[in-house]
């Protein structure tokens, strides 16, 4: 381990003891189920843990990142040579206040949709089958079925690691865009409040059931994947372009362009992260040549890949 990693580990252990772990496999913490270990790993449970992280990375400059459900990340086979954070149970809660629901960032989006349904609140139906945490969904502006989290978020609570302080961000200042936000790199989303509207529970429930059924019908949910690999280019559909380029079923090593949904890559049991990235590059190259369009990956790379920045 490098000197900085050692130093960061020492500081983290002083505050969080054995909860700070080393060489933690990340593959099981992602939906792609590929990739190597985190050099250092911590599940923060409360703000003191995040303040501790601030001090550790302030004194020993190591890279850090945060993951939620790992449903939109591709972790390098080498893993991540820094500190990986994954918010723990202390950030998994939800509280209703009239038409608003405030929830911790580790709250799974489907569970939050369930809370909304139980309270007869409409607006989160689109998220019932997105396998995200609330924090990851806010960072990515996750959406489906004409809905997206940025449209219903009222306020976001973040912890700025670089500044060692908690900050409350109004939705208008989050810079939501298609599958993205402009939240700073060092901002860990710790909670968010969504503004919903009262509605009949049976209609909300039926809409959620339709969303679940649509996914089962159209997506290869039984195999490891990260959802849509590419963003839809302006005015077009990535899946249609990939299908037109006859790439369904194309394979690199253990990674395969899904035969069920062309914008999904599925990782077989022998797949590596390098296979997945090579297939991403192959698809980009073919679509560039066949449609003249540069497909932009939606999936985030974690760690170092040959020829690519982390
Ligand atoms: C089967 C399947 C279906 C999917 N369908 C959809 C869909 O319909 N619509 C859609 O938008 N997405 C979809 N996705 C992709 C994915 O679920 C979303 O991008 C989701 O927002 C990622 O959330 P996460 O908690 O898993 O974050 P991760 O994948 O763990 O992380 C994604 C990014 O968010 C950052 N991040 C995570 N947590 C935090 C936090 N607390 N604070 C700050 N940054 C954070 C990470 O650093 C990373 O950059 C799908 C994925 C799968 C596997």
If classified by CATH, what would the architecture of the largest domain be?
A: 2-Layer Sandwich
Mean pLDDT equals: 97
Tally of helical segments: 8
- Beta-strand portion reads 15-25%
| Bound small-molecule species | flavin-adenine dinucleotide
First and last CA, distance: 19 Å
Q: What name is given to the CATH topology of the largest domain? A: Uridine Diphospho-n-acetylenolpyruvylglucosamine Reductase, domain 3
What number of structural domains do the residues give?
Answer: 3
How would you describe this protein?
This protein is α+β, with helices and mostly antiparallel strands and 310 residues long. The protein folds into three domains: 3-86, 2-Layer Sandwich (Uridine Diphospho-n-acetylenolpyruvylglucosamine Reductase, domain 2); 93-216, Uridine Diphospho-n-acetylenolpyruvylglucosamine Reductase, domain 3, CATH 3.30.465; 220-302, Uridine Diphospho-n-acetylenolpyruvylglucosamine Reductase, domain 1 (Alpha-Beta Complex), CATH 3.90.78.10. The protein is built from eight helices and 18 strands. The protein has helices at 3-16, 47-59, 109-118, 134-140, 149-152, 201-218, 238-244, 273-291, and strands spanning 21-25, 37-42, 64-66, 73-75, 80-85, 94-97, 100-104, 121-122, 143-144, 147-148, 153-160, 165-170, 187-195, 197-198, 251-252, 255-257, 265-267, 300-302. A five-stranded antiparallel sheet has the order 6-7-13-11-12. A four-stranded mixed sheet has the order 1-2-5-3, with no helix packed on it. A three-stranded antiparallel sheet has the order 15-16-17. Strand 6 (94-97) and strand 7 form a beta hairpin. Helix 1 runs antiparallel to helix 2. The model has no long low-confidence stretch (mean pLDDT 97). The protein binds flavin-adenine dinucleotide (FAD).
